Amino acid sequence: MRGPTVRPTLVIVGLNRSGTTAFSHALLNHPEIEVFKDPGKYVYESTGMVDFSHFFQPPLTSMTRVRVIKQSIGQYTPELCTIPVYPMGDERPAFLRKLHHIYLVRHPRQIWQSWQTMTDWLNNTTDEVVTSHWRDIVRDKGIPVGWGSFSLFHLAMSYFKETFEFIRSVAPESTYVLPHEDLMNRVTAQRVMAALCDRLAISYTQDMIDWRIKFGSGEQVRLRDGFKRPLEHPERRYIHRNILASDGLGRQPLKPSLNETAPWPDRAAGKELEDAYRVMLQHSRGSHSLLQGEA
User: Fold this and answer.
1) What phi and psi, each to the nearest 5 degrees, are found at residue 209?
2) Which of 10, 58, 265, 290 ranks highest by number of CB atoms within 10 Å?
């Protein structure tokens, strides 16, 4: 298996609604970074064909020094909850060790509550563009309107954790866990970005925190967006409403606080997800922390 075309290549993995889009957009604000956002995700959902060409394409611009591949996991079909992130083939471990990996974690209750918010909005909106689009999805896939059942959420979270455990075992020196709250705090976000730039051998720029390029505008030549609908689509604008309103990391509108008393649809499965989150969070503060070694 040949190596990635651009080195270093950073792979960002997280569940939908865990902050992967904001994180990758912050990195796009670095002039030497290019971003592939959810490449091949919706092609895989509809055809079953896995596309890993984003690892091997030539640089998008002559300025590129780092490639970022952002892959979010989850939504309304099993395929979207188990999207393959890395190429298969001979010498796979050697290939994975050539990459940098960040697993972005957020409390599973917050993510599940966000999925439910999306489902509620889809079931109550009167926007004809959205309702027509979902009539096609329901007819094509035979699924209810919404972002997926709790069983699909559990599948996505389990797959995310298992993928992390495998990558950590193969490439421990270049695999990190990043808590969502570290990106929501401006001071911590600066420290994270500075540490990450150091590992990627590029200079830190404050534009990654105070965005020169607002989401949805600007330096699109360094972005390949795999989303099958344009940003102007009303559902997508609702999905990205917080990042669209933001000027940088740590500046997103305040989100609803975590409702720790809300019952899980399945108590045992919910506890399993919270335990998995705590295990990954421990890694984020130990040897898998981007801030390791700081005073």
Assistant:
1) -100, -50
2) 10
